[in-house]
């Protein structure tokens, strides 16, 4: 499969955009949890932490739409379907490599204790 010379640069840019979004999301979650705790310690009967959480959440949603597109409006073409199948096959192959074999190697068999009888004792 051949790639256009600009494909790598575009793919790298897309990966960096996703990485920035995930960083933004994790920062949002940590800060909002901290604001929640601060709110519960200072004014538990007035939930003021909701205002910055909602405002920042709107900005986070805009970042999501900019990175991934608006939910439900993706073009699920045959090319997209094939790419997703290849991605899942790659994950399965990687997972299969990480599994340990169920059989014992000869080295492991040699480590087992040997039976304590002599050949002339056998019937």
What does this structure look like?
Helix 1 packs antiparallel against helix 2. The protein has a domain of 73 residues. The protein is built from four helices and no strands. 66% of the residues lie in helices and 0% in strands. It is mostly helical.
The N- and C-terminal alpha carbons lie at a distance of 66 Å
Beta-strand fraction estimate: under 5%
User: Which structural class do the helices and strands define?
Assistant: mainly alpha
* Number of separate strands: 0
**What is the element string, with H for helices and E for strands?**
HHHH
Radius of gyration over alpha carbons? 28 Å
Describe, in short, the structure shown.
This protein has helices spanning 7-42, 50-68, 78-98, 106-110.
Produce the secondary structure layout.
Elements: H1 7-42, H2 50-68, H3 78-98, H4 106-110
Helix pairs in contact: 1-2
Which key features would you list for this structure?
123 residues, mainly alpha, 66% helix, flat
